[in-house]
Amino acid sequence: MVTGFYSEKEKVEICVDIAKKLKFYENNQGITVNLFNESYTFIPKLKKIFADYIKDTKDYIGKLEFEEIGKVIEYNFPVSKKRKALFVIKIK
Questions:
Q1: Whole-model pTM?
Q2: How many CB atoms sit inside 10 A of residue 55's CB?
């Protein structure tokens, strides 16, 4: 049965997909860099957001500072399937 809301399993898949993209992030020079690394200040916060989002029934929308490179991460993790998850690294 298909519902209009993401299941817990689907939310896990969304979070794992983002984590994989961060782990194998290709920079402007074509070099693969692991951004899903605990040494970056936003990662513990992101992991907490992932854990809360997976178990909760509300949207998670916000910004994280990527202090090490002076950028901002904007995220939007919806509960409704009417919208897709968004995770974007932007210049400040």
A1: 0.90
A2: 9
